[in-house]
């Protein structure tokens, strides 16, 4: 059917690439381009004997728009799937605009020198994408991503209006290390050490990091401590889901993770302010990333499950209604299938599905759009087909 250019070749990209190769009717050709080409070549070598998808590789520094434009002009893709880091979102969007190529990503732009992710920079491209007649699909991972699709699906099929959404992200995986992060450590630590916030009655309520704690009994996992965080999808769902009064996001953390994080924070290791060390400028958090286990190395060691989903409270025909839509995923099963643990898996599968929706023309809406703005049904079907089946409970435990 078409050609996809995938930028980045880390944990999430590796899963998305495996999944494209399982879906050769749609992804007849993929080009993997990243900063370190050797990683792209290694994946090409592993996968090309297993698939009829034609795989090529390229080297690119996605911080440079001119390099990206040259790459897109050479490869001529039908869609670009950005699986590099949030810092590269705008350069890749610029290059897609210049070459009139549809764009898909999984994380919103964050300037490298400020730990503040927001959609405003990417939404500012809306008119230019519309004029160019190309679609940008923002946030096609799990959260953001599937959580937005679940919200659109709940609204379409179960509610007249949704008033409350709690997004619950539980990782009950155990990798056996005292401290490691499940995806890019720099991005992960920036996210969890920032202030929390939630949307209520038309404005943001800010909290201290990890200030709000709840315990939740997760289906197929059991009771876990979870903490309120700010999260990307709150910003777009607050606008795109009519009738919304409050949206919160909770993520589970074990005590060992939190104790280590507090200690690293206290000694200054999570700072993104550059310091001078032996005549060279270094960023403490980037140095920390270099000494922590590579998330890709956690795959073979991680046991247990993830459970990510949304609890909705709203109204249908004047009656109050509750609904919980969630997916559970097993780390060891994921590793067996694609050589990665469930955190990368639950992001890489929806990234492939988002690119597929654009490539096969199921989703076409010129402009810059968040995932909940599209028809959720074909995406929900694809989740079942490609390894992330979801469940619905009409009588869930609620979060206080
Ligand atoms: P990794 O660090 O494992 O991979 C990032 C990849 O991007 C690496 O291959 C890296 O290259 C490449 N890269 C970095 N900078 C550049 C550059 N300037 N030019 C070209 N390539 C570059 O990250 P993850 O796979 O864990 O995360 C990928 C994305 O997914 C991130 O944006 C993350 O925020 C997002 N994510 C989204 C989730 C969701 O649910 N929505 C959940 C988890 C992650 P190199 O190999 O040279 O370092």
Automatic annotation (TrEMBL):
Question: Which InterPro entries does the annotation name?
Answer: NAD(P)-bd_dom_sf (IPR036291), Sacchrp_dh-like_C (IPR032095), Sacchrp_dh_NADP-bd (IPR005097)
**Ranges for the Saccharopine dehydrogenase-like C-terminal domain?**
141-387
Determine the domain of life of the protein's source.
Answer: Bacteria
> What range(s) does the Saccharopine dehydrogenase NADP binding domain occupy?
5-137
Task: Show the PANTHER family listed in the entry.
Answer: CARBOXYNORSPERMIDINE SYNTHASE
For this entry, the protein name equals Saccharopine dehydrogenase family protein
Q: Lineage of the native species?
A: Bacteria, Bacillati, Bacillota, Clostridia, Lachnospirales
